[in-house]
Amino acid sequence: MRVHTYTRIFFCAVLLCFIQACSSLLGLPSNPERSMMGETTYYTTELKNMPLPKEKIVIGVYKFRDQTGQYKPSENGNNWSTAVPQGTTTILIKALEDSKWFIPIERENIANLLNERQIIRSTRQEYLKDADKNSQSLPPLLYAGILLEGGVISYDSNIMTGGIGARYFGIGASSQYRQDRITIYLRAVSTLNGEILKTVYTSKTILSTSVNGSFFRYIDTERLLEAEVGLTQNEPVQLAVTEAIEKAVKSLIVEGIRDKIWGKSADDTANYQALIDEYSREQDVNKNRVIGNKYPNNYRQQFSFFAAVEGQKVKDDYVNPKMALGGKVGVKYFISPNFNIEVNANTFTLENENIVKRTYYIPEVNLECLLLPRYKFSPYIYGGGGVMLSDIKPRYKGQFGGGIEYLVGKNVAVRASSQYDIGFKDDWEGLVNGKRKDQAIRFALGLNFYIGNK
Prior knowledge:
7-stranded mixed sheet; about 45% strand; 8-stranded antiparallel beta barrel; alpha+beta; Rossmann fold; Porin; single chain
């Protein structure tokens, strides 16, 4: 009995060492970390490397706040923490400073500044009575030629979610992801006449991922082995907000140069032409962007011809049906981006082991629907009818199916599909038995070539 106890203690010690080793391997934190400088984003470097202006612009920011009122999503009751950081004004001022295009002045807490200046004046008047009055006066405050307004106007949760996983005999693994999105508007207002000089809009997704693995198995009747490992990573909201604000500041600068609203710098656009051209190209690409950072387009032309290899298996009145190979060729004509009419010719081999084997030549007509015609990857469904031709009387049938298509080149797509054939009569193999009509199932893999106009 004591030997079993020692064995269990030894096994637990080895298991703990293994878990610690796995923790280090996965990069999981196991020790406290020192404080460090904050991370920088991609646009922090871009702002710092921008061409310098001819003259810096004095700019004021009174309030750049979270306007969403969004709270953090919670699965366990209410969560009163806000989803967006509340220090977005400070983040914006830091971005303005990094760009070297502006002279930010204190306006968010202007009351504190004015109060402190009043204290200075009172102290000087009290203790420097005999001094020159000019030495006691404070220099005037800078005033802003432009005010920046706006804020975080949207926080959208779960705009994209998904995952994948599998489990077999107690061993499983899974991965999940979730995307949120923040949206920022920033506008420049002239203090001379209140004119809104420029408004820009940026957005940034926030990614959360989770990877898990587990093992659950009975070793014998009274022994159970269970283990699991997981890793979750959430993109910091503060960094996402910072990147979106920095992108907005860069966009404001470039559009201001292009539209000549930045004073002396507006008169020398030649030095900034490369920056303007790069921004214009980005705007052109962005015209086709949709949610999920996808860029749909009219990739497919009006006509296509295709060829495929099929695996076929009949469901008839005889036993032991066999899988056979066949082929299909055809053409498609698109009557709209979603719908096309398909005409094809294919071979189908009906075979039951050691009983019957017959090859049919089948012309078919289908109406097909591409569900996502403006994407390279699109599922599709179709249905129609056909005639089965052989050395016996023609048979008529209907068919429906579906699959997926992916454009691997400019005019070439790979297709994978499955099709179900339904006979109108129970006589494909020459035997009528029971009430069920003869049927068949097919699986196909092929290529689709697009030609013609879009």
